[in-house]
Structures are given as C-alpha cells and as structure tokens.
Design a protein that fits this description.
Length: 432
C-alpha cells in the first residue's frame, strides 16, 4: 500500500480520497468516450427499431441495442463481454496503465445469466422422443444426456468476469454482481469501499448489459414497463414528461478506473474526477414498485450526500435515474423534493436515458462516466423529448439542449427493480 498519505489526500473521516483516472463507454450512441460524449452533448438519440430479431406480434419494437460489435457477439454473454472488454480496455489505457496487467481487483456488474431461447431450442432438438416432463425439467434432463460445453460456458454466472480478469490482468477473484438497475453503481461502490479499507490502491468497476432478446422484451412488456411509442423511436424516451409511457430497453457498458488519490498522484496520473460518497439502501415494498412514501429513495440520497460529508446545497447538478416510466420519474422527483425542497426547482436535473435508453445492469456505470464528463467539460447533457412538461413534477430538466455550467459536484442516481438503490456523489476535484 502507498505510504505518506497527506491530509489533503484523505476525506473528512480520514479515508483515502477516491480518484477516477480512466473512463470507458459503449452505448447505442457509439463506441468510446469521445463518440458518446459528442452525441450526448449534442442531444442525439441512439434509439432505433429492433432489427436483431423479428418483432412481429410484439407491443414494443424499438430499443437502444448495440449492433456494431460484430456478428460473432450473438448471445447476451458474448455481447456483454465484448462491450465490457471495449469499455474496460479504454478506461485502463486512459488511466495510463497497461490494459493486460491492471494489477487491481475487478468489480463487474453483469446481467443475470440464463439459458436463452436459442440454447433451449438446441437442446430440445437433441431429444426427439416424446416425454412427459416439460419446461426446464425436461431441458435439464436433455442437457445431462447431451453435454454441450458451449452452452455450459455461455450460462456460467462468472464467465464474463473470468474472461475480463484474464484480458485486463486484474488481481484476486473477480466479483460479479447483479443488483438490477443499480448494478453499475454498486460495482463502483464496491471498488470505492475496497480502496477505503486499504485492500488495494486501485480497482476497476465495469457495468455491462447486452441482453436485448425476444424473451427480455416480452418479459418487460408483460410488466407494462416499456414504451410503445414505436413510430418515431428517437422520441420514445421522454423522462419527466407528462406523456411518458415507459422506458426503452438498451445495451451498453461503462467502466471507471478508481484509485486512491495518493497512488494516482504518485504515478503522475491525470485526475478526471473524485468519488466523494456512495449511498445504498433497500426498498422491500414490491418487486417492481417503489414504496409510496419514497422513504428508501430519500434514505439512499441522504446516505450518499452524508458519506461525502456534504449537504444538499453542495450538489450542483443531478444525473437522474429518469427512466421515463410514470411511477419512477414521479417517485424520484418526490424523493429529491423531500431533500432539496424548493431548491429542486432550480437545481438542474437531466436524464441520459432520454438519449441512450435504459441500459439496465450497465446504467449506473455508464451514467457515472457521463457525470465525470459533465464535470470535466462544464456541460450538462439535456433531457431530450421534453416537449410536454408534467406540472406535477416541475423541474429544470435541461430541456432538449445541452447547457454550459460551472459545476463542481454531481449526484448520480440509480434505482433498481427489486428495491436496490444506489446514489453516487461525484466531484470535479478533492475538497479542501
């Protein structure tokens, strides 16, 4: 571990200050930080019609799928790995480190792995006999009698992280986690905590999700969670608008290299931003809905700000979870209002999901990377498609056009199905 830590390199609790030294992004807007920031800051949407599979009979026929990573990435596992590898390698190289010998732990947020339809059909075709058992029981029996190493590898929970650990040269057992839509932020939190505990000088946190399949679209449709505004795809995601009708599923990956400020300065690394605080709280009210009084959301935001040693007045900009569903946007605004009060009406709050869609497991990491870029460039990405404001939640959404702003601190929110909530407080520079 690094020695001779100065007071300026520890926070108000004496913990190591956490620096961000590398970023990587893949989304429907393109591959790489530069391409993504150019599109995001210009208000361009990456939402488009689904062409990966037939959408006949589906209520939702649009997504923010990533279709440029190569034909070989035709399963959720292979695509999720390809995007994570691209984002992770970009972040490590940006940090000035070798992308095959990173030397710190990996915390990976990845989508839940299960047997896709193509795998089930392949197994089904191996067994022509009539059998009484149905569904998974039958498929498991077929799999036992016809072992298929390819399917086994694709359905291993740890497969993506193991490949990444080998590719990037990380240290220790790679951690794979899935906390729904908060997963990417959870990965960052785990990296921050490992450095604060003194277990490592650096860590890489990656969130990835390449799981747009017919089955996933149908599942979210059955929850009435997806937008059905199919006619003009780029207009479908409209967070905080009165006529919002659901989120748009999307894919992507985000990566952040985290280091103690002491270690980063010792090797002359460029400091891109600071993770001041992380807040995490659970909501046990419902599998998909938030507790009506918003108390878990409120507690999460308070915890993140408190962990940073700050007050709500220290937050200059809010990178909203902002999914474009009727309930989520209302509950997020309610929770923020309980903390910021009247100041919320003048605190800029925008949603990247209006342009890239909801990248699910990857969202927290991608949006944290965008938050760092907002601080670096002094530009607030817009909430596009904000043409019909909701009078019930009056907000400064940075409507439709990016805005220049001298901001020092961002609150990045991630609220997930199943009650997982994480908020990150990200700054431009260490606090005095």
């Amino acid at each position: 571990m690094s020695a001779n830590v100065t007071a300026a390199e520890t926070d108000f609790l004496g913990r190591p200050v956490i620096a961000v030294t590398g970023l990587g992004v893949v989304s429907s807007l393109g591959r790489g930080v530069e391409a993504n920031w150019a599109a995001l800051s210009s208000g361009r949407s990456g939402i488009h019609r689904i062409e990966r599979f037939s959408t006949e009979g589906l209520r939702t026929t649009i997504s923010g799928s990533v279709d440029f990573m190569g034909a070989e990435n035709d399963t959720s596992t292979t695509l999720s790995y390809a995007m994570a590898e691209a984002a992770g390698s970009e972040a490590v190289l940006m940090a000035g480190l070798p992308d095959d010998d990173f030397g710190g732990p990996l915390f990976l947020a990845a989508p839940p792995v299960e047997m896709e339809w193509q795998h089930r059909l392949a197994l089904d075709a191996m067994d022509g006999a009539e059998r009484e058992e149905a569904g998974y029981d039958r498929l498991l029996e077929v799999a036992r009698r016809h072992p298929n190493p390819a399917i086994y590898r694709l359905t291993q929970c740890s497969r993506i992280s193991e490949l990444l650990a080998d590719r990037l040269g990380t240290r220790g057992l790679p951690i794979t986690l899935s906390t729904a839509c908060a997963s990417g932020a959870t990965a960052i939190q785990l990296g921050v905590e490992a450095i604060r505990r003194g277990e490592t000088d650096r860590a890489i946190a990656i969130g990835t999700d390449g799981s747009i399949t017919p089955e996933s679209v149908i599942r979210f449709s059955l929850l009435s969670a997806l937008s059905t505004n199919n006619d003009v795809p780029e207009k479908a995601s409209k967070p905080f608008s009165k006529d919002r009708d659901g989120f748009v599923m999307a894919e992507g990956a985000g990566a952040l290299v985290l280091e103690s400020l002491t270690a980063a300065k010792a090797r002359g690394a460029r400091i891109l931003g600071i993770i001041h605080g992380c807040g995490e709280r659970a909501d046990d009210f419902h599998r998909t809905r938030s507790k009506p009084d918003g108390s878990p959301i409120i507690a999460t935001i308070k915890a993140g700000i408190a962990d940073a040693g700050m007050e709500p007045t220290d937050i200059d900009y809010i990178n909203a979870h902002g999914t474009s569903t009727p309930e989520n946007d209302r509950m997020e605004a309610t929770g923020l209002g309980a903390i910021f009060g009247e100041a919320l009406k003048t605190t800029p709050i925008s949603s990247n999901k209006s342009m890239i869609g909801h990248t699910l497991t990857a969202a927290g990491a991608i949006e944290a990377a965008f938050s760092v870029l907002s601080l670096q460039h002094g530009v607030l990405p817009p909430t596009i498609n904000y043409d019909n404001p909701d009078p019930a939640i009056p907000l400064d959404t940075v409507p439709n056009t990016a805005r220049s702003a001298d901001i020092r601190t961002v609150l990045s929110n991630s609220f997930g199905f199943g009650g997982q909530n994480v908020c990150l407080v990200i700054g431009r520079e260490p606090r005095a």
